[in-house]
Design a protein that fits this description.
By secondary structure, this protein is mainly alpha-helical. Helices cover 78% and strands 1% of the residues. It contains 19 helices and 2 strands. The longest helix is centred in the C-terminal third of the chain and has 38 residues. It starts with a helix and ends with a helix. This is Cation:proton antiporter.
């Protein structure tokens, strides 16, 4: 069977899991249900393989290796998911949160990278499983960017307060370019023959981020002109598909950030073309069409995240470091957000739950896994841990990603409800329960 066959079957499985989830409990996030189910299936496959039953683990691992998770996400469906997410971003709200989003996307991502790196280096040294500092910082670089796919798939469905939702969603959409530049630079230090210079880093940053933003404006503007030039509803919708297909691939060929290009063009189409370029009929179908694509690809992606467990090799030492990786990443996220937040709250009032939601809602997902899988295998074997450095970083990354999706993703709703309640209380909403009102009077 070829890759297309595998994708067809896996897509069907992911949709069926979502269907069953809705039937059993429509309050459960379908992305969480799909990830949990695929992890359970992966564990069963591994158990069967260990017992020499059916050899399902061999078959499933072969399928995952054929799909090539990294290429499938970073060079494939990422463009569709980011474009679909950016279409729903409201420009006035984005402008209102521009300083927060910029600060979190730039400063917090960089700060988190080094905090996580130094914490991991210190703790691994204390427990006698020391990892070289450069590899600790490399782990910090790949795990620090919050994943827009995971965030948009979970946070936006909970209907968080607009400003708070935009801070979380906006940061996750824009920190890809920064995170990728940091990861690429640390990667070059760890595995390259030449030490990158300050000029080379600056050039890479400008090319990836500024180039991606400008390219996003260009392809968004071209798409706007084409959409405005026709009144055919079907053709107008089809023209939007050219952006995450040819537009995303062209950005990658030009070595600019395709992720940022998709975000910028999506915001442009969603806020300008939506009101001036589309016919009335297409305006009604635009969101439905892209919500369908977003839902379908997210279902497939989160299934693959769970099945990626089959690609991970464990040792006892690796499991110990895996357990430390989760609190280290949470601490790094909290500190990196807390520092700029202390300054910004002097100039603007924030919901009392903002810092907690920014920390707990900083979800990691497929992007971190894809970066971990991009590390070449066999370059360095760590003797006292008994693992290749790539496998070790992948183990820790997988632990953080699954914890992020399953635990953080399923519990953040309580924080968002409290944030909503605090807003209602501030605006003077009264409790309509007569019994409680009588108790207050007495």
């Amino acid at each position: 069977m070829n890759i297309y066959t595998y994708i067809c079957f896996l897509s069907t499985i992911s949709i069926l899991i979502g269907f069953v989830t809705r039937k059993l409990n429509d309050k459960i996030q379908y992305t969480i249900a799909i990830t949990a189910t695929s992890i359970i299936v992966s564990v069963l496959f591994l158990i069967f393989g260990h017992l020499s039953w059916f050899k399902l683990d061999v078959v499933a691992t072969h399928v995952m290796e054929q799909i090539d998770f990294k290429s499938f996400l970073l060079n494939g469906i990422l463009g569709f998911l980011l474009f679909a997410g950016a279409l729903g971003i409201k420009l006035p709200v984005l402008k209102n949160q521009k300083w927060e989003i910029t600060t979190f996307a730039l400063l917090s991502t960089l700060t988190s990278t080094f905090i996580i790196g130094f914490l991991l280096y210190t703790i691994s040294s204390v427990i006698g499983l020391q990892i070289e500092l450069v590899y600790c910082i490399l782990f910090g670089a790949l795990i620090s960017p919050t994943d827009p796919i995971a965030v948009l798939a979970i946070i936006k469905n909970l209907k968080a307060p607009k400003r708070l939702s935009m801070q979380v969603e906006g940061e996750s959409l824009f920190n890809d370019g920064v995170g990728l530049v940091i990861f690429t630079t640390i990667f070059a230090v760890a595995f390259g023959d030449h030490t990158p210079t300050a000029g080379g880093i600056a050039e890479l940053f400008l090319q990836e981020t500024i180039g991606g933003i400008l390219f996003g404006f260009v392809i968004g503007f071209i798409a706007h002109l084409l959409i405005s030039a026709t009144d055919d509803g079907s053709l107008e919708i089809l023209l939007t598909l050219t952006i995450p297909t040819a537009g995303f691939m062209l950005a990658n060929l030009l070595h600019v950030s395709g992720a940022l290009a998709m975000v910028v063009s999506g915001i442009l189409i969603g806020n300008w073309t939506r009101h001036t370029g589309f016919s009335k009929q297409s305006r009604l179908y635009l969101d439905h069409f892209w919500e369908m694509i977003d839902h379908f690809l997210n279902s497939l992606l989160f299934l693959l995240i769970g099945l990626a467990l089959l690609l991970v090799d464990f040792t006892t030492q690796g499991l110990i470091l895996l357990l430390f990786a989760i609190p280290i990443c949470l601490a790094g996220r909290y500190i990196s957000v807390w520092i700029p937040f202390q300054i910004m709250q002097r100039f603007r009032h924030y919901n009392p739950y903002t810092l907690r939601i920014l920390t707990w809602g900083g979800l990691r997902g497929g992007l971190s896994l894809a970066m971990a899988l991009s590390i070449p295998k066999g370059i360095l074997f760590i003797e006292h841990i008994g693992m290749d450095v790539r496998d070790l970083l992948l183990v820790m990354t997988y632990a953080v990603v699954t914890f992020s999706i399953l635990v953080q993703g399923s519990t953040i709703e309580k924080m968002i409800k409290k944030a909503k309640e605090s807003i209602m209380h501030k605006r003077g909403y009264v409790d309509l329960n007569p019994q409680k009102q009588n108790q207050r009077k007495h």
